[in-house]
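Hi, here's the filled form for the chain we discussed.

Project: internal
Contact: R.S.
Residues: 252
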Amino acid sequence: MHDFTAVFPERQGCPGHRRRSRHGPGRRSYPGSSGASVAINDFYPERARDAVATLEAEGLKALAVPADVTDYAQVREMVARVQGELGSLDIYVSNAGVPVGGMNYGRFVDSTPEDWKPFIDLNLYALMHGCHAVLPGMLEQGWGRVIAITSESWRAGVPMGIAAYAASKAGVVGLVRQLAAETGRQGVTVNALSLGIMNNGEGAETMARKSTPAGRAGSPEDVGAGVAYLASEEAGWVTGQVHALNGGGLMA
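And the returned structure, exactly as it came back:
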């Protein structure tokens, strides 16, 4: 039986859990529900603290580690704190996605490099920062799980004005596959969950009912279940994969 520490970035980053039970979808359907200690990162400290309070109210051990994951130095400090307070860091979930300024929808030809940068920084560089900070420890101990949350926008062209966002999410896929190839022989797996229509936006449920065989939008519990599997011992033979979590909206 292993002791594990996992890192979960929220919006702009999140670390850590330590557990003594097997990973698997629990009531909350993510590794913390299996007895893990969870470190929650967010760009906004109050959100990280609120999330920790919610988990602690459910009897889970949690740590708030607010930081800007687009800042490499802050990420290294965050990871060092998690390792110092919770022990070895075994699972890293990168869940950042939308910059502080929002999606900023618009045609690519009408945008500027300044418009692209927040998406590349948050979706690609933030993942690179986190992986660069956590992988040395995982490789040294011979066990680790890296799980990146990406979006089906990387493989489905849509006239929504999200070119920079989609490009950054495509970068996540490339990085995941390369890191999986580099680390697989040392007990580390690197995978991605590619999300379809989620229930966190106005009109999402209506759109999902019309466009997906499942007939509904995805939920945090759906994502948590996928994360719990990829973080588990049982998923040790799964690496370098992009798992579509989209209610059947895309099947190719």
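Let me know if anything looks off before we file it.
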